[in-house]
């Protein structure tokens, strides 16, 4: 039993309460029963924290673990030496799990091993280290591996998970050789001192938005169910302190602990600095940058009790890639509405009357035009400086340029400049303006939805028809049974009275009574 009880002395140091025992159990002054009860209760309440503290600081070949079904949130397998970070099983949607690196004080995941494919939280799911870090779920056939031949797995004090092998004695420096590290495969978060290179991608948790590096800029991209990503935010290097030299290699980005996002090419002098609110302030807590599910890039620092917002790349809501959803209209100062006035905004989305399709033209087989056209004045494309456009002399020619293009979902024409912005991705949120010279032309494919509605109506009619037939059959069968019983009972009465009947009401009452008696006697 002693193996399962926490050490009370170490526990008292980690409790979030001010109460501590001033004397040990071996002293003359012993704790009273209330103090003992308090310690017992808090030991069980803080048991997950004690489990985390007991996790290893390195995993060697032969390590193997399965998720514990009784753990509701996070099962630690490996800690860093400061116990600020932990690696282990992270429960997702109550029934799934991911291998994650967690910031222990905030319980916030900083890195996931394979965020696009999750395993089940089941005793059949197994993680092991055999030189490679491997997670396997035989039921879902999920398998992920680092494909390395290392000696040990360690978690550094900056949250970097590494697979190391031997010692590198080159340059008289005895350090392990790093075969693989989580910092090279970020998910949606960058932490301080972590390098982000041109070969990496930061991906939002919903998979819709990504951050990548160009030759001299940081770009944010949206995936709108089309063949290519659409850039919606771009920060170009100012090159004030150092120049980007063509042919000297790609740029990389690093979150600096002094409160800024630095862009570098070679050396330690940045070619650009994107400062945070905490710029050049001394912070004790962790600093991180995250690509949020709405597509915004934000920085936070840990104050000791909460995450404090430190930087926002896109400050205006309407400048986000799709703040009002599909076929939405975002007007600065007014919020969200719908492009089509007949639609209603519900739960932050407009109820789209169309279905996304890669072919926004009439059906070539049936020659049926199932494309509805929506026109709306006073609209503008978002992030237009990064949008593709053509110059046309009129609105009609702009509409024709999109109407004859089966991969075009819509167009927005500016009568003043003659710019015709082509939307080659499913319609998202447009900007509302007071300028009626800016006119939008949008395609909505109705056929699939009609088919869906008609098929649903057909199923409903079929079910209703079946129910009516069943009801008619039941009534008919019941009527037949009543007629048959009545006939049999009347025959019995005729036999008893010699064929004389004394009136319909009396006979019917007798028949009903006798039929009940017969049914009752049959079940005695």
Automatic annotation (TrEMBL):
Q: Which residues form the Apple domain?
A: 361-446
The record, for SMART domains, names: PAN_AP
One GO BP annotation is: recognition of pollen
Q: State one Pfam family annotation.
A: B_lectin
Q: Which residues cross the membrane?
A: 457-483
Q: Entry's InterPro entries?
A: Bulb-type_lectin_dom, Bulb-type_lectin_dom_sf, Pan_app, S_locus_glycoprot_dom
Recorded hits in Gene3D superfamilies, A to Z, give:
Bulb-type lectin domain
Q: Which domain of life is it from?
A: Eukaryota
Keyword annotations for this protein, in alphabetical order, are: Disulfide bond, Glycoprotein, Membrane, Signal, Transmembrane, Transmembrane helix
User: What is the protein's given name?
Assistant: Apple domain-containing protein
List the source organism. Answer: Gossypium anomalum
Phylogenetic lineage: Eukaryota, Viridiplantae, Streptophyta, Embryophyta, Tracheophyta
